[in-house]
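Would you mind writing out a protein's amino acid sequence and the numbers that encode its backbone to help me picture the idea?
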Amino acid sequence: MKLQEIVPWGRTLEEYVRMFALTPKDLTSKILGVGDGPASFNAEMTAMNGQVISIDPVYAFSAQQIEQRVQQTYPAIVDQIRVTADGYRWDQFKDAYELGQYRLTAMKRFLSDYPTGKQQGRYLANQLPTLPFADRFFDLSVCSHLLFLYSKHLSEQVHYDSIKELVRVSNEVRIFPLQTLEGEQSPYLDSIVKALTDESIQVDRVPVAYEFQRGANEMLRIRFAD
């Protein structure tokens, strides 16, 4: 992946907790963060003695390169959100600017942690559908704003292969959101749920206490049936 193809946009631990319905017990488990990008999730969890490994192609780049890319893309992202404001709920943020400042704070926290975290092996430049981890290496994998959201960019086969790989390396998988960038349910969702269920994998659509993109208030929880 080229740096100019990346649009960095970081989320916080508090948002992860709501997006993935993370319990206090979940936060003590060994977690894989998929597509975390410049989220502060890993940094905040590490400060709480949590165990998180984040994977994203952006981690092939230096902190300085990522910061420069944030500065390049930030104004356009905020402006795009402002133009399409009707597609979002504004109960947490009053406007696109306030949202942008919140995201910048998260990304700055990520950047301050990134050099150390990279040395410690907490930020790895890997991506689905193939991961360098042993079977059941993680208790939980969380995939934020990647699968299903980018259905126009990632094929159904890539979605299926990616989820099967996450099921291989973790005891449980949670994916949010289930909508595309256009605000519609992913066209792959129903067929993938059926395919996984046919393989005795338990799949549940779970309402969550998070909704910024209108209608995006469910996650997919995936685990082998008991």
